[in-house]
Amino acid sequence: MPQKWRSRPRHGKGPAGGPAKRTQEKSSRAQDLTKTIAELARNKQLKRAIATFHKFEEEGLQPSVYTFSSLINAYVRAADVPGALEVMSAMKRHGIKPNVSIFTILLKGYSQEGKMNAARALLDEMIAQGVAPDARAVNAFFRGCLYHGDVPLASDVFSKMESSWQLVPDSISLRYVVQLLSQGLRVSAIKELMKKLQKANPLTEHGGGKTMGRQACKFWASGTCTKGVNCKFHHDLEASPESQERMQQEKVAAMAAMNLSMAHAAAMLGRWPLCRRALKCAEDFYESTEEGGQGGVGSHGLFQELSREEASREIQRISHFLNQEQPPEPYSFLCRTFLFGTEPCTEKAELAQCCVDELVRSFGLGEVLLRVGLSEEDARTSFRLCLSKKLRLRGSQIFAPELHGKRKIESDPPLPMKMEICSGNGDWVIAQAKADEGLANWMALELRHDRVHQIFSRMVFRKACNLCLLRGDAGRVVPAHVQPESMSHVFINFPEPPHFSGDETAESKSELLTGSFFSQLHTILQQDGKLTILSDNWRYVRRLVRTLAELRDENEQMFLSAGPRNAKNAELCETLYGIDLFCGMPDKHVGHKKKTTSYFDRLWTKGQHLDRYYFMVQKA
């Protein structure tokens, strides 16, 4: 590696011990600094990571590719992809070539921002620079496609894996792609991929087609090789029976997950025999894993256990819908699903077209239209009616009874409107909407496409006709598309802190709950409208209280504490800046009418995060 980063001239007598010892000390110091940057990156401490990196030049040390990789990761975790790209450019200027790990980190960064075309271009750049994508890099791309619902891009990369990159899709790749296809109701394509996985034999495809002579993989023997069929080295099957068993278990688990995705798509289309067959296969697997007690240790084991439990919940949910055998009616619910893109629209017709295109691309609207005998123009007409001239959502039209492309009848008088922001998979908002039938209408706003689809399926299966779905960045959707003074109550459950500890020094450009965003909520709330926030993070919830309390409009507080003083399942912990902060579970007095748990609630409970904190404020 070219020695571009040389130490500055030093005067005076150097440390005793000779050049070899000094070189060893420098190497050890460089490794320690690299480890520090990596730890700061995990904690989203970008400024401190940059300051630590500057010590390499100050102390005359040579940063390695791992040092740059850690710094790039710090930028990405702080949602600063442009900064990460500048670091990679600087790294190239100093003669250090980016490796597959750095490209994978950047793929994650683009995925977080929803820039999947840029992520796709980055894969081509890897190939052009002689860096072959591995399964981990491609799976990072597929995960981004899943988060943003980009079925065409995922299909394009999947087709190139074997044909152009000599990369065999692993079980994770197949699961991601099948989940995307399930959301798009592409049953035939799912069947083809399931056949592909059934034919694959991970025990005979060891080492893939790129085996380098008879050189053995040193990681395989210890059971730590993560390359699988794409490993360039020889896998001796007799040397590691544990790895054989693990690979076979991964294949069976992937097939079960794919069957569950198939069952979901078949249920949406009312294809009951196919749904039953797929559901039975998935159910058999998850029942066997519960009996066998399969799982890991520590946090990974807890996550595996929760994943099995969530799959069982999904099986029960589909089974309940299946047993009713009532023809699904997804079209009317699709007309209340607004998938806002990353690029703003300026005209009503343009936005309606974008909503329809997104639903066709990733929610299977085309298939649904064929089944109900309607056209895309009917769908566009429906969406245009739901938008004002300023592209604001018109609740009276969205929740009117007449659909299918015809003019809707405005409800009179309008029901109160409530909203949950960061809705996750929708368990909580569906329960509240069902409890509020005939009393209030609801909107659920979520950034990740896969979670929006989970909410959508729950909305269809539970027939939650008073719920509207919004996909997009809340910081953009709320000011651009929600009517001012239209919300009676806004809820935010388990918001993600800039850092998991709620550390004040953690940084993230993607942080949502800022003073600016709370000002936007103030605008959309009716007079005396309420805002309730629930969290398991004491430090972070206190930080949010302070942010709200500091907001002023002409020297008047924008939000005031709204109690409650009669909470049954909680106690008043603290009054901070005039806002009452409670410890315990929220109830109907703060708008939580239906007692239920969300995915995040179950996740934190698994990790023994049992304390809950909440507060409610009202528009002053």
UniProtKB/TrEMBL annotation:
* Reaction catalyzed: guanosine(46) in tRNA + S-adenosyl-L-methionine = N(7)-methylguanosine(46) in tRNA + S-adenosyl-L-homocysteine
Q: Which domain of life is it from?
A: Eukaryota
> Residues in domain C3H1-type?
211-238
Q: Which SUPFAM superfamilies match?
A: CCCH zinc finger, S-adenosyl-L-methionine-dependent methyltransferases
Instruction: Give the PPR repeat ranges.
Output: 64-98, 99-133
Which region ranges are annotated with the description Disordered?
1-31
In the UniProt record, does the keyword Cell membrane occur? no
**By its UniProt entry, which PROSITE patterns does this protein fall under?**
PPR, SAM_MT_TRMB, ZF_C3H1
Q: Name one GO molecular function term.
A: tRNA (guanine(46)-N7)-methyltransferase activity
Zinc finger (C3H1-type) stretch: 211-238
Keywords assigned by UniProt?
A: Metal-binding, Methyltransferase, Repeat, S-adenosyl-L-methionine, Transferase, tRNA processing, Zinc, Zinc-finger
- What is its EC class? transferase
**Biased composition range(s): Basic residues:** 1-13
Kindly provide the name given to this protein in its UniProt entry: tRNA (guanine(46)-N(7))-methyltransferase
